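Tutorial, part two.
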Amino acid sequence: MAIRRQRTAPCRTAVLPGTDPGAVAAAGRIGSCTLASVLLVLTGLIVFLDIATGQDLRVVPLLVVVPALASVFCTLRQTIWVAVWITAVVVGFGAHGDGTFWDFTLGIGFAALACGLGVAACAARIRHAAEVARLRSAAVTLQRQILRPLPVLTDQISAEGIYEPIEEDRFVGGDIYEVVQSSYGTRVIIGDVQGKGLAAIGAGFAAIAAFREAAIREPTLTGVADALEDAVLRHNAFSAQTGEAERFVTALVLGFVDEKRVEAVNCGHLPPRLLRDGRSSPVPLRKTYVPLGLAALSHEIRTTESFDFPRGATLLLFTDGVTEARDAAHAFYPLDKRLARWAGREPRDLLEALRGDLEDFTGGVRRDDVAALALRRVPVGGRPRPTGLRGHFRRAPAVLSDR
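Running the prediction step on this input gives:
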């Protein structure tokens, strides 16, 4: 992996693309020039105080705490240089002092011990941080196989989106989405697994994996929905054997078959909103079936219905983490009222407004995963250029440790 060199920072550590942010903590947070300046100023201040107090109060030995502080914020190499510098200062002042030989020896031994412990602590911190970074990087890679980064472009639509799991240190929660280009047209799913956080990922992954296969294989949208039902049932059967809770999945499955109409199978999910001509309105889906995994409780056979989705309009799909968000007074988020203000915006601006308004409305306190997709038909003549809204999926920079 090549190192990207930055010419604007003479005192810095080399940055590598594609590594987890945990490596930043492992490599250190203070530049070498800043560290040297602080160390010189601190040493000068301590030496001045030692000279000013005379033999009655020796202040220089207090410098032995500096390597301990450096071990928390600096790289291993920086901590070693700090330890060497502090030891040299203590030895120099001890050699010119008026104490006995044993005072000098004990002082040097204490300084060397304190500096050695600081270096050892720094090495242990970096080793632990690097291990955590490797584990987190592997987890992020696996989680990104469940939900693809946004935006997604196909031959028929562009899909912008936001995705905010309730667990901030996770990239995937209980909400799911996917966009697949097939020979039968573009197919889209958005869903919400019963439960929250990591406990809901298993059922969500089962549904996503089944959708990716069925969207390409099945000629009808009801066939896709049936494949999803079977996948959730298989997952629940396995969960029952392992003692885990069985779960259901609410889902809205869409199929873009021509330039105007969209087919839909609604499995207990919230109806989307259609934004066009500066207005927002719920899509009038008349048939709502039981969620995936609960088909045995109903005698209804899932069928498709269609609605108009003209070019230039925006179709907003979302989960109940949006509509059930609450403010400090426990009032629900007024989605339709807010959308009426933003109906004329582009998908990216619409989602940014929604994200910011949700944050302000809830005061930053989320009670459920939040997912929303803004779909728009591609312009005539080809795919649109990606706008760059990627929800929380961001490639994080990393630092190459100089230890």
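The radius of gyration is 30 Å. In part three we will examine how such features are distributed along the chain.
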